[in-house]
Amino acid sequence: MTSSVKKENRNYELSDIYSLIRDFISNEPINPNTDIFKDLWLVGDDFHELIEGYAKKFDVDMTSYLWYFHADEEGHNFPGGLFSAPPYERVKRIPVTPELLLEFARTGLWNFPYPEHSIPKRRYDLLINSGFFWLIVVLIVLSLLIWRI
Length: 149
Fold this sequence. Notes:
single chain; 6 helices
């Protein structure tokens, strides 16, 4: 969709944003400056599902969205996180608020001025986790083979 089309009919209100957020939380109070991650404890996959639902419902181009500035990941990052920090631990977290969501819903474009930063191209924490997993699998298989002997 072109940006000229995206700018038409974008008279959203905070109540539209609140309605979307309410689909993910119960009755916690929300105001324009509520930090969705920190104040509402909408974290991990739930946070990412909110953002995906937001992009779809409000037709926001999220091409420039950098998730690791705003949220964490679901689950534990062991043991990889001990040796190599995941992206969200390498940057200072930037809150996502209803007011911020409304601003980008009205323009149809996620246009956040992220600070300069450097993130490795490879997720070494995940590579370590994967290697650790396969090491455990191999050890279990070997112990089962040895046990049978």
